[in-house]
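Allow me, if you will, to draw on your knowledge of protein folds for a short while. The matter concerns a single protein, recorded as an amino acid sequence and a row of backbone structure tokens. Kindly check, if you would, that the fold set down in the tokens agrees with what the sequence suggests. You will find the record immediately after this paragraph.
***
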Amino acid sequence: MKKKILTMMMLGIFVFLIGGCSKAVNEKTVQEDLESYKIEKDTTKEERGNTNGNLLNGGMIAYQGEWLYFSSEGSLYKSKLDGSEIKIIYKAEENDGNIANINIIDDELYFSAGNHEKGGLYRIKDDGSDVKKLVSDTGGGRQEKVYVVGDWIYYDKKYILKKDGDGSDKKQIIEEKSGSTETFSISDGYIYYVGMNYNNEDCIYKLKMNTEAEKQEIYKRNVYDVSVEDGWIYYIDNHTGDKYGNLCRIGIDGTEGGEVIDETVVAYNINDGWIYYILKENGKNELYKMKIDGTENQKFDLKDSQIDEYYGIYVIEDWIYYMTDGVIQRIKQDNSKQEVFCDFGENIEEVKNKEKESTIEEKLVLNNTYQTRFGDVNMITFPKFAFDFPAVWNVEEEVTPTGETVTISNERGAKVTYSHLVGVPVGEDATGGSSVFMMRVEASKIEDSNFVPSYVQATDYSDLGKFVVAKLTVTGELDMKTDSDFRDVNGSVSYAVIPESLLGVDEAVRNPYSVEYGFKYGDGISFVAEAPEDGFTKEEEKCVIEILKSFRVVE
């Protein structure tokens, strides 16, 4: 490997020197070669988030060190390998459905979540904090495959993005005609996948793990469930005929391999020279194993009911994990011991009871951070702001050339909204608004804010002065069609980050708070918390004040 890397470095330097000596060499070509080498160097580290076999089965289980990570019913769990210290670290939002394709590298998990309408790619710390949705998808409802290799995420067969980024660098690297099976595998710096050629024929393709290389057609055949192990491409044959459903293989260079198992294989997982697979016998799924050379074929003596083929089979150290009747079971690879690993009726009930005791505290903990992206997305120089919030709150974001809106909200509807309004007068400069309705609003100081105004490009905004977290209380309303003066009301309560100069009573509030209580910082900026219909609870009030207080400029 060291020789290979050294050789690649020498070739890279040689290409660069030729480019410097000959004006005939296109600068773009040299740059592409260097970029290609950079990505190849990163990905050939082969640090992986899960095995090909486990991801082929859906990636419902992954492990690292002494910890196991697994999913069921839209929740992500963590436990010791012996099944102790089990806890829920993340629950998918109702609209995001189930969790699959789990990868773990260092202290970060990557996974997909989806239902019949939409899905996405997520990153989360292994303690359940700092949840980030990197990619949002709509339509189809598939739980897209996720492979994390080196510094890169390969997502939905077609896309590549940096694993430590925010998802904005997602780039399509594979373009195939629709209708091909959504299956791929990664091995030794190559992606192996199924796609359709221009004659509408299904093929297995091989592609170097970068964005410049040309794909290679390996084998022209309709197949699915591709997994690459030890120089062989394993697949389930999808051709109608006597081989339909059989497990076959072909060399990664296209050399013929042939059948491996001449029966209909429901699921399989290859690990350390062994094939673990499921056959349906007399209406029941049975678990087998055999060596990859076809010898030592054995049937496991399972003492339980039907294996859930949709959950899959997972090889973790010397155990095989699977699900029956909603219970995760495991059996030793040598068939010597079988046991229940997690009963989602018993183990999880205890976890849920503990969670209920600490629900309020968890919802108050600001264990996630959001950074605004207006400058990055629009590729212009503009300050980046940050604020902290509970990981259990939902995040909705939109960035356009005319501004940015980020709204975080809890399950009751309490929400905090960051607004960046390009070209809109705000605060003391606000104009327009309703011509018939006004509010009287009292702005009173609650806390000092962490926000300290400075420079935006070459303009100094420090004269905005000190900022505070203010309570905004509606004390009067005026309908100019029917009223001659304000009607006193015990109105709604909101909170906002504002300059001290906006404290006091304003009797001419005609615009939304994002305008009336915004401030000019290059463009119009506001950070406002609004209550649900029945108002803030005491806990929510404390939480939104802390969120607003955390608002700051990222240096």
